[in-house]
Amino acid sequence: MTAQIDLALLVGALVLLVAVGAMRLSYRLGLPVLLVYLAIGVAIGEAGLGIDFDDPELARLLGLCALVVIIAEGGLTTRWSTLRPVLGPAVALSTVGVVVSIVVVGALVHWLLGLEPRLALLYGAVLASTDAAATFTPLLTD
Prior knowledge:
Layout: H1 2-29, H2 33-44, H3 56-77, H4 80-83, H5 87-113, H6 117-128, H7 131-136
């Protein structure tokens, strides 16, 4: 059991180091870092190195960890001088985008799965909360 935990920690640390290096590389090449993170995920997944994601709990945990890294990276690498000119449009776009995402996802969940509207909107709110973080980075161009 401890060998599995040690291996998981080692792989996690290596992925984190690769992600930090990829962040620097994407900045120099002018690529969106989210695209680079997606490529890393494909490279270490079943299509690449062959890491098997048959365990839903492990996939959920890795997804949450990746989300934390993506959101933290955006906050830590953004300079105020770059943020200031786009702050107004970004806040407006992210607020409107989140509201639209909540309504669209809620309506689809209600229509497709037949859940009650309040629960469907709750699903929409959970899914839409990351839209602002994912769409904000492309606005920050030097």
